[in-house]
Amino acid sequence: MTISADTWAIVLATAIGPIGAVSISLWRESRRSVRSGRLHVFRTLMATRRVPISNDHVNALNLVEVNFYKCQKVEAAWREYKNHLNSRGPEDDVWRESKEKLLAQMLSEMASILGFNIQAMDIFKGGYVPKGWEHNFSRQSAAMEFIYELSQGTKTLPLWIKGVTRSPEDSGSNKPRS
Prior knowledge:
By secondary structure, the protein is mostly helical. The protein has helices at residues 5-47, 55-67, 72-85, 93-114, 120-125, 131-152.
């Protein structure tokens, strides 16, 4: 009994077809997973680029080296940004502007990998943070610093006893508070 070439083709297609389909599905899912991870990091960093300190921002920064592995331009920009963040110089206006430019450059490189055409300057100038957030952050930082200084003994807690001592507001008046 001889099996024809058509029969062999059908047998071969029946055996290899499902294996090929599963392989292609796994390959596509892997690529989709990589892109999804990269988009998560990119979107988080874009959303938090104007927030001075954010857990989401720091967590996304720590994922850059994993999710953009072997993306040489992103890795180089990330290293430069990380080195700047870890520098021990004063965090003055020049340092902050340099930090923002390095972040914008890194985000621009990520955008390029993801197929977005966003220039670093657009990222640098973009974003929004309400003034109220900056005010609240400043007040919270000042309060935390005061509590820390209290705990270290470098600050004292002002105390006025009602009816016995005068508060700074009453210092102009001669009568005790009641």
